[in-house]
Amino acid sequence: MNSGIFIGVDLGTSGCRAYAIDASKNILATANAPLPTSFIINKHVAQKPNDWWQICQNVLEQLLHSINRDQVKAISIDGTSGSVLLCEKNGTPLSDGYMYNDSACQTEAKQIREIAPDESGAHGASSGLAKCLYLNNLYLNNQLNREDVVCLNQADWIAGKLLDRFDTSDENNALKLGYDPVKREWPKWLDQLNCRSILPSTVLQPGDISGEIDPNIADQFNLPHSTKIVAGTTDSIAAFIATGCHNIGEAVTSLGSTLAIKLISDKPVFSPEYGVYSHRLGEKWLVGGASNSGGAVIKKYFSVEKIEELSQKINPEKSSTFNYYPLLTPGERFPINDPLKQPTLSPRPEDDVLFLQGVLEGISTIEKMAFDKLTELGAPYPTRIITMGGGSRNEAWRCIREMKCGVKTLNADITEAAFGVALLALKGVDER
């Protein structure tokens, strides 16, 4: 086991957070700062890459004030999935950063749909590849030399700033750029889109060492020149890693506005019709899907305070007998693929406790159906479920879900993506 300090930096939509841990995974320090709000440019949702770098520097400096800089062994970065920019090979941005929730690249998404296999993670107008094609057309038709340009994910570019080398991505961030995680390569069909040459030349496993920190950056932060930069991941996968799940069959359910599920599998599962795809985690796979049901339905009817009050009166062991399918609006993709699926939230009893219980039971049934669907598609049934998100604080709901799914259901101790990516920094050095 290596001694030392390991840093994870999580670059989100609205801010940046960093964690420093020791070799025993103890948290030594944290730091955070807000990012300027995204802006709209030509219908695209964008941020300034130099704002990303400035805020990362601020947060790193803040964190380093609280620890022994001489002990820092490795740094790893996560970023929002599908947020990309075009830059020169020396890292100078040529474009704004087009964000994960920018879905303006409809024409490019159609081009991808006509060429890419159904199981590719590059589908959709918000994919990194759709934005890459847009930027490719916008800038490279303007007499720019293709050999001097690269399209990078948000996390790739920040890691590049630390390395002073802008040619590397990781298998998770690269997925939405079209990377094939099964064959571990950029697929040949990308050549038909005339963009392969501007994608990162190297794709590493999360936790692999990308290289040593650039000496000038090391001196800027008074860090050892031997500090390693470790390949990171996306923010959602970093949050999954933070929960401590790493064995096949372990699952994480996120009870936020929607119901999102991730499960560790021994094999990849791809089912585009259900919105199910797989990220590679070493030799294991993280299989995921998301229902349109979730906490947003509950908050339509009750305030947070009312939910807490009513939940304390629920008896989870006595069913409400209702058979709800809670949705805000018609349409469901997973675990049922039905764009016309109607919400079922009637009959509504006069007793609000019973109504809330019925809604919680309905969402819990959908969670059980989701795990059943993943098992049907080839993934294992969960051996235990870790819960994160706002709904994880509801003990009555936890009990209902545990009975529905038939496996131990626990709340995550830590769900911060910065902690998860700090674990990757530790992994990168500890395994060598």
Strand content: 15-25%
Poorly predicted tracts of residues = none
- How many DSSP helices? 11
Biggest sheet architecture? 6 strands, mixed
Write a compact overview of the structure shown.
This protein is α/β, with parallel strands linked by helices and 432 residues long.
What would you note in describing this structure?
With 432 residues, the protein is α/β, with parallel strands linked by helices. The protein has two domains: 5-238 and 417-430, 2-Layer Sandwich (Nucleotidyltransferase, domain 5); 247-411, Nucleotidyltransferase, domain 5 (2-Layer Sandwich). Helices cover 30% and strands 24% of the residues. Strand 2 (15-22) and strand 3 form a beta hairpin. Helix 9 packs across helix 10. The longest helix is centred in the last third of the chain and has 25 residues, at 352-376.
Question: Secondary-structure map with pairings?
Answer:
Blueprint: E1 5-11, E2 15-22, E3 27-34, E4 39-41, E5 44-47, H1 49-64, E6 72-79, E7 84-88, E8 97-98, H2 106-115, H3 128-140, E9 149-153, H4 154-163, E10 168-170, E11 202-204, E12 209-212, H5 215-221, E13 228-234, H6 235-242, E14 250-255, E15 259-265, E16 277-281, E17 284-291, H7 295-301, H8 304-311, H9 352-376, E18 384-388, H10 395-405, E19 408-411, H11 417-430
Parallel strand pairs: 1-6, 6-13, 10-11, 14-18, 18-19
Antiparallel strand pairs: 1-2, 2-3, 4-5, 5-8, 7-9, 12-13, 14-15, 15-17, 16-17
